[in-house]
Amino acid sequence: MNLTKKLAGMSAVSLLALGLAACGDDDASKDGASADKTAGEMVDYKITGIDPGAGIMEATGRAIEDYGLDKWELQTGSGAAMTAALKKAYDKEDPIIITGWSPHWMFTKYDLKYLDDPEGSYGGEEEIHTIGSLDLAKDKPEAHQILENFKWDEEDMGEVMVAIIDGEDPEEAAQAWIDENQDKVDSWTEGVDKVDGDEFKFVYVAWDSTVASTNVMAKVLEDQGYKVKMSQVEAGPMWTAVADGSADALLAGWLPVTHKTYAEKYDGKFEDVGTSMTGVKIGLTVPEYMDIDSIEDLKE
Questions:
Q1: Where are the alpha helices (DSSP H) in 166-207?
Q2: Cα 84 versus chain centre, distance
Q3: How many CB atoms neighbour CB 289 within 10 A?
Q4: Are 209 and 83 in contact (CB under 8 A)?
Q5: Where, by residue number, does the polypeptide cross the bilayer (predicted)?
Q6: Cβ atoms within 10 A of the Cβ of 33, count?
Q7: Given Cys at both, which of 107, 117, 201, 225 links 195, Cβ 3.0 to 4.6 Å?
């Protein structure tokens, strides 16, 4: 009996079993090949980053030096490009290493983890500070008082971020959050007089966390009577604008590590108005399905 007749005589179930076995062999060989690779080999020794002026990029450059990751390349781009690359990899369960920070909606959408940082290149917990111009308290005391009172948590910010990522207009997402959290907003504005059309200028970077906070606070100040303008810039120009007085405030002062360079550069030229959120974090981030846990693992 030739091979064709043998196959013809086999049941459909038997043929299916053969096919599944063959696929299993392919998958096993693929998994085996991945298991044999180091973390660096799996991602071509590339870390997917964001805009080059961001403090997390400076911290990542420091981490590359601290851990002796001579083969590694830190790729610059934007926050949007980084999250797009993450989604593409995550959907296929491909390996990827990114510059991550929380609060960020990606930790809600995806199962991610920070790599341990025994050398402390990224510092410990961070805080988000409101940074104002030196004349803010004198020229716009009402806004200064509200910004000094401004405090919210990761869950608050996350609600606004996720709404925006899901397609809602940032202004509408901000207003919806305010409508649902009026008691908290009232605690920021309590006892503060309204103004009549005074201008106020925010500068911000296109990070999802900052888009959320700036839109919320813009709405709060508008309700207080201010005419608010928001200008999107990169991290360096953001700090410069507040330091030289061409902008009134920024809500994205990540300290003490992320924006340490800018805080030191403009020391004495701005006011640290207050801390809006504590317990935030930056660091190298990977999907949970990747079998690495520390930046030390990248040296292999």
A1: 170-180, 182-189
A2: 12
A3: 11
A4: no
A5: none
A6: 9
A7: 225
Distances (CA, A) of 75 to 52, 85, 250: 9, 12, 26
> What's the chain's length in residues?
300
CA within 13 Å, CB half, 260: 12
Which pair of structure tokens corresponds to residue 150?
A: 């401004």
Q: If pLDDT is split at 50, 70 and 90, which confidence band does 30 have?
A: very low
pTM check: above 0.85: no
Q: Which amino acid is at 62?
A: R
For residues 224 and 189, the answer to whether their CB atoms sit within 8 Å is: yes
- Contacts of residue 241, defined as CB under 8 A and 6 or more positions apart, other chains included, come to 203, 231, 233, 247, 250
**Average pLDDT score over the chain:** 89
**112 forms bridges with which residues in the sheet?**
287
Residue 195 vs residues 60, 143, 218, 227, 230: alpha-carbon distances, Å: 43, 9, 14, 10, 18
Query: Radius of gyration of the chain from Cα atoms?
Result: 25
Which residues are 200's β-sheet partners? Answer: 228
**Which amino acid makes up residue 240?**
T
Instruction: Reply yes or no on whether the pLDDT at 19 is more than 80.
Output: no
Q: What is the DSSP letter of 294?
A: B
| pLDDT tens-digit map of 250-284 | 999 999 988 999 999 999 999 999 999 999 999 99
287-to-56, 92, 110, 190 alpha-carbon distances in Å: 19, 11, 8, 43
Contact 174, 216 (CB under 8 A): yes
Could you tell me if 105 and 162 are in contact, meaning their C-beta atoms sit under 8 angstroms apart? yes
Chain-centroid distance, C-alpha 220: 24
- Tens of pLDDT, residue by residue over 162-185, are 999 899 999 999 999 999 999 999
Q: Residue 14: CB partners within 8 Å, gap ≥ 6?
A: none
Q: How far apart are CA 4 and CA 100, in angstroms?
A: 57
